[in-house]
Amino acid sequence: MEPDDAAVDAAGLLSEALEYSDRARGHLYAFHQLTGRSDFLVGDAVDALRGCGHAELADRLERELVGRNVIADRWTFQIVEDYDDNYWEPFRRLEKEVRDQVTGGERHLHEARLKQRRRTEGHPHHEAGPRLGD
Questions:
Q1: Is the pLDDT of residue 132 over 70?
Q2: Which of 15, 22, 86, 130 is the most buried (most CB within 10 A)?
Q3: 84 lies in which domain range?
Q4: What is residue 67's three-state secondary structure?
Q5: Which pLDDT value is given to residue 133?
Q6: Are 95 and 19 in contact (CB under 8 A)?
Q7: Cβ neighbours of residue 105 under 8 Å, at least 6 residues apart?
Q8: pLDDT tens digits, residue range 27-67?
Q9: H or E element in which residue 23 lies
Q10: Is 84 exposed, middle or buried (0-12, 13-18, 19+ CB in 10 A)?
Q11: C-beta atoms surrounding 48 within 10 Å
Q12: Does residue 60 fall inside a structural domain?
């Protein structure tokens, strides 16, 4: 039995929400990598300051900034891991469960139906493609 449009739309909304979570996760990884690179550059600045006779400033930077937690008790990799374990993985699991029950496991069924409605049949570059009859 073909799922009704309202159920497909609901599953599509949840899939779209997961896509936003995927993007947020990507930003967390960018934050993680950028912060790590910044920390290593601070270390390079510490070495450069020592090299030009500013040992006291270098010592202070090394003591107060190099390797510092970005939030209480956490480096960025721990933030990413907590996000993955406590939000992203459960979200993915639940989205798949909804998709399995509502669309028979088909991904992007909402978009496939949208493509079917919006394409110009018989026109080049508007072919139905896989799952839509071509």
A1: no
A2: 15
A3: 5-118
A4: coil
A5: 53
A6: no
A7: 96, 99
A8: 999 999 999 999 999 999 999 999 999 999 999 999 999 99
A9: helix 5-51
A10: middle
A11: 11
A12: yes
As a whole number of angstroms, the distance between CA 39 and CA 83 comes to: 22
In this structure, is residue 85 part of a structural domain?
yes
> By C-alpha distance, which of 87, 94, 79 is closest to 34?
79
Half-sphere CA count of 42, side-chain side, radius 13 A: 17
Does position 111 have pLDDT exceeding 70, yes or no? Answer: yes
Tokens of 12: 């599509």
Which 8-state DSSP code applies to residue 3?
Answer: P
- Give the burial class of 106: count Cβ atoms within 10 A of its Cβ; 0-12 exposed, 13-18 middle, 19 or more buried: middle
Strand partners, 74: 71
Q: Is residue 123 part of a domain?
A: no
Can you give the pLDDT at residue 90?
A: 98
Answer yes or no: is 30 within a domain.
Answer: yes
Determine what percent of the chain is predicted with pLDDT higher than 70: 96
